[in-house]
Design goal:
This protein is an alpha/beta fold. Helices cover 29% and strands 23% of the residues. It has 6 helices and 13 strands. It has helices at 14-18, 44-73, 91-98, 111-119, 184-198, 238-253, and strands at residues 79-83, 124-132, 136-143, 146-150, 154-157, 162-163, 176-178, 205-210, 216-220, 230-234, 260-264, 270-275, 286-288. It has a 10-stranded mixed sheet, with helices on one face. Strands 1-3-2 form a 3-stranded mixed sheet, covered by helices on one side. Strand 2 and strand 3 (136-143) form a beta hairpin. The longest helix is centred in the N-terminal third of the chain and has 30 residues, at 44-73. The radius of gyration is 49 Å and the shape is elongated. It starts with 13 loop residues before the first helix and ends with a strand. The model is unreliable at 1-17 (pLDDT under 50).
Length: 290
Amino acid sequence: MSSTLRYPHSQPTRAAAGKPAARGASRLVADQRLTAPRAKTDLSGLKRLVWPVLFLVLGVAAYTLAQRVLPYADRPISQVSVQGDLSYISQQAVQQRIAPYLTASFFTVDLAAMRGELEQMPWIARAEVRRIWPNQLSIQLEEQLPIARWGSEALLNNQGQAFTPRELANYQNLPQLFGPQRAQQTVMQQYQLFSQMLRPLGFSVAQLELRERGSWFLTTGVNSKGQSIELLLGRDHLLEKMRRFVAVYEKTLKPEIANIARIDLRYANGLAVGWRQPVLAAAANVVAIK
């Protein structure tokens, strides 16, 4: 009789079935990398070096290109235009003056030297020269505006600047101003002021002189009745003295102007009249102003 040995089947324990196998204690350590910040590279010095080098390279390249292109672009000057209201000089005289400069080409002509040469001409007050592509020059001229004679050897323009043309004999009809060379503008300004004040009386300024010690002497032009007088103005308060003369002339002197040779305005509150006819010259009557 055979017997069968039965071994009971092993059942997994609850721990084995429901939980993972026990493990040894473990420590969770955060993965932190403690690294020092990297230093930034300073490129400012390199930039300061690169930009000048770059500009230098570009400049050399542009210069080289210009040197190669210039011979093909540069041309002889074939036309010169002269503009401006010219009354005292001719375009032919201007052309002759600048002729030596026109042998240069469009790019090589010396505009500054040409302008200086033109402004040395007595009747030219200002000159402007410019290029017009591809082969022209434009010249703009401003002539002197003569206002008066300066002494016996020069003229004065409206800015009080002296210039010396050759044809001085043609301008004897202009008023004549005298004074130290340093006072040209001052004399011109006083001339313009006195002319404005005398014009309503029918007079103009024929001569005006500023002497070295500062005294002013004025001679009027001949008015419509053929009369002219001298005014002695002294050294200061010129405007006040001229106003005094204008006021007294309108009230008192106008009827007697034909007999008056000079009027001395160097008094503080009046003026002295010098008569033409000795009979009326009662020690040069003094008119007091109150």
